[in-house]
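Have a close read of this protein, sequence plus structure tokens, and explain what the tokens say about the fold. Thanks in advance:
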Amino acid sequence: MATEVHMPGPMCLIENVKGQLRANQEALGILEDITQPVVVVAIVGLYRTGKSYLMNKLAGKQTGFSLGSTVQSHTKGIWMWCVPHPQKPGHTLVLLDTEGLGDVEKGDNQNDCWIFALAILLSSTFVYNSMGPINQPAIDQLHYVTELTDRIRSRSSRDQDEVEDSDEFVRFFPDFVWALRDFSLELKLNGEPISADEYLENSLKLKQGIGQRDKVKELNLPQLCIHKFFPKKKCFVFERPVHGKKVAQIESLQDQDLDSDFVEQVAEFCSYVFSCSKVKTLSGGIKVNGARLKSLVVTHVNTICSGSLPCIENAVLALSQTENAAAVQKAIAHYDQQMSQKLQLPTETLQELMNLHRASEKEAIKIFMDNSFKDVNQVFMTQLVTELETKQEEFLKKNEQASSDRCLALLQDIFSPLEDDVKQGIYHKPGGYHLFIQKTQELKKKYYEEPRKGVQAEEVLQRFLQSKDDVTDAILQTDQELTEKQKEIEVEHMKAEAEEATAKIREEMQQKIEKLLKQKEKSHKKHMKQLTEMMEKGQGRMREMQQRNEQLLQEKEKCHEEHMKQLTEKMEKAQYRMSKMEEKIEQLLQQTKSYEELRKQLTEKTEEARVQMREMQEKFEKLLQQKDNNHAKLMKELTENLLNAQKVYKKVCQIREQLQQEKIKLQEQVRHLEKSQCVIS
């Protein structure tokens, strides 16, 4: 269950000692105990601008973060206050108050840049606090945002072809809120009232200028960076809370003592932060809790102290390695707990132990998956599986040892009366060997009836009986007075018992083999049924394709016959016309020379008719060629379908042959087992 941390007051998270940043171990311990998702709100701004007052209001307190009442900066480093989220149950609100920027006592701008960068890296909502309206001096004071690309890297390595870090920052950066304190202007633009957000957008518009392009570009740089890094922006204006020197006593003043508009504006600011601030997330949508925030703090501070640039990718990688290692240990602990609670050694069978191991292993892997992220190349998953396999081997050895110990204790307890009788010489007489063997069989039966002997039951029994071979031989040697007939009877009796035991073992093995064969046969029939269905479906498809092809051929032939018939009719009509024309020509030739010109015209028409005849003949030949091509294409498709069907049938035959070979191998194993039993008997 997620734990909820209640801090009575703020605590320094990142100390600033003589310009050196250092994480406070006590504060890190508080973060380590927070398992809830965290909403991280950081505030940054010039010193002595009232940042701490807003953070106290977000904490729901009148006092907490030090406000101070002089021109000297009070907050040093970054201070933290963890409180239950007022609107999101199961979440923790982490408030980060930073030391004032631009403190003349520090004299080093580098420290301010790192404080600004850390506030960006750690928060999900970033509040920039400034005094008065947004003008060029106010924007110039926000020059830290232009240096972010020189202070933060998104990835550990970057090729020239890859996107620049600055283009990727937007995926990791927090939401931006600009708080304008002691704001006395009227929110109007061109005589029309505007909202604080519209005022912000208008103030961040790029300046246009003619000439001195570099100077204009330099002036627009903060606006460009804010637009680029913070697509989601919000603005709040706050009037002066009180007038005169009462500002120094603001901690002790009640709301009724403050300006009513200011009180309303603070309430609106707090409401927005509570309802709109998101949970701090990493790449891949991974939600950050207290322990993960602690890891980010340690990684970034150590990187800065080493002289390197904080890298978001490296921080996430370091966090993933820490959490994945912890996830492995958590999974192993759960596995050990489940096995210790449910496992009772020795187990009756090996399968009982394996089933419990697999169930516990499955739960352990699920716990690892729920608590890990970014397991690159499955390194930690492989480590977990390896450790679980090692533990499995350990449990197998423990199970065998527990079984051996239990069986040996049982045998010593069961056979102790027999050993006492042997010491007293009860079996050192004629017929004593038979009585000894009979008693041994009774005790063996009693041993077999004992429950939970484990996997070593038979092996320990055989070792125990072998250790008593000297006693058995001694009793047999003293039983010299038995007659030859009695000896033969005894031998036959022993053989019968041995044969009965062998037959029983053979019968059990035969039953197991038959059961295995039935399962194999059932599986074989199932495979054959599936293959038969596949063949029948394939043959059905082949028949359908063949019928479809035959129909297409018939339709093509029918169409071809119709075309041929039409062409024949046209040719006959043309021939008939030609014959008629020839008859007319003959008649005209017999006429006078006055009709010579008419004959010439008729000759030309005849020639045209012959040309038409040749064209019709060419079309007829093309149709014949097209028919041959279509027929060849259909035959090729039919041939390919038949080849595919043959391949399927060949594959089915191969599978059937493999199944037959497996069946033959199984029969050979059965014969081998039967031979082994015969040798044993």
In short: The radius of gyration is 49 Å. The mean pLDDT is 79. The longest helix spans residues 484-590.
